[in-house]
Amino acid sequence: MAVASDLAVSLKEGVDTRWAEIKSMHAMLTEEKRSFTVDEQTKFDNIHKALDADDARLRQILKDEQRMRDTDAAYNEVAGRPRTASGLAGVETREVQQLNEEIRALSNGERARPVDFGWDNPMFSRSRMGKRMAMNMPFYGNPLTPTEARTLFDNYVAGGSPGSFSNPSGAGIVPIDFYDQLISYLVEVSGIMQTGPSVLNTTGGEPIQIPIVAQHTGQVSSGGVGQGSNLYVNLSAAQGGTFATGDPVFSQKTLTSNKFGILVQIARELIDDSGVNLLGYLAMSAGRAVGNNIGNALINSSAGSVGGITNGILTAPIVVTGGSTTAASFQGGGITGSYQGSAITGAPTYANLVTMQYSVIAPYRQSKSCYWLAADQTLGTLRQLTDTTGRPVWEPSTVLGAPDLLLGKPIVSDPFMPSIGAGTSSIAFGDFSQYFVRLVGGMRFERSDDFAFGTDLVSFRAVVRADGNLMNPSATAFPRSQPIVLFKGGAN
Length: 492
Known about the structure:
alpha+beta; seven-stranded mixed beta sheet
């Protein structure tokens, strides 16, 4: 069997590494249920370009090497030169026979005389045993002498009775490989960004004032014509009469920049001696930890909270509350809903969900960013809810990657939404594009070899500056114009 050159082997390793990076990025998107950022897309494209270049070069080198082997074989046949093993010039049949004899003797359980192949011998260095010695015995220098190679070889096959794989002497008869992929358990990640909030990326962190319409032209909060809270100035005028005035009112909301960060310190030896991509894992896990912390703040923070953001989703002013009495039916309006015949305290009824949905006006309900948002356990509960005819209100998706639907609207799971309970706002519904998220300068992942110089630790930190706020008008004046509503379980 022909053996690839060192250049071909090096290129193949490069191709494998880049392919692993591509699969890792795809796996990350699948796990986090999102699309690439601009920086991630650029990195993805660059990896693909490098992969294409290395693959093309590898194919050409393999083609050239095969042509040279074919030429050498034809020439040797005509010139009468001795044949070589595995396409390696200089390794004669005598050496091949010696190695074969050793393998047969070992398989029969006999004590064999090891082959005196030094590390600089091409047949030994490219053999499976030679590669394992290079990987598992890095403290041996280059080249290995025949004595060193023989000692290593003896340690691999020592011990045991003939024909067995037992090892009473304690020496390793089988080399131990190391799987070079770090296996980590999965965790839930913030889902708020999947609902399509408006994201502002800025280079500086100075406060940003967002102008909003507090009252539309001709609209009034009371005393006008219309129905409910949808009131307007009476614009009808008699002949020669004076038109009524109805000036718009403007306001503003502020987005600041709050710092979120994590510091990780790793022993120098762990980084230098690790057999896995430890730095890649640190970058991923630190970024995820910071991202989850921001995700929690974007839902649960309120104005004035320490280390939080301006206003989280749960500060939305319009709340649909379950009733204060226990009800066994889904029409009862109580604090329990009907879930396959069981009652769950603090869970919404079918009527509660319908009320929530129609507490948001049609323009918001028709938005592409109109979602249900709840914790995964809450969604598991809602999946059991039925309507007044006994049909499930949950609609499983039939398209791979598309979200499930609840009363016709997509659902997003977020682990930082509160669980179902009396007095707890556990579900949000509405147009999340009216929620603004500000990111300052993107994620920073930085390394310092000097910060913990006295303890020989390498320090890493991940830092993000962010803020969030709901761009809604006054709930007192215009309760029907609120983009997001909440459900709160009734009190016992």
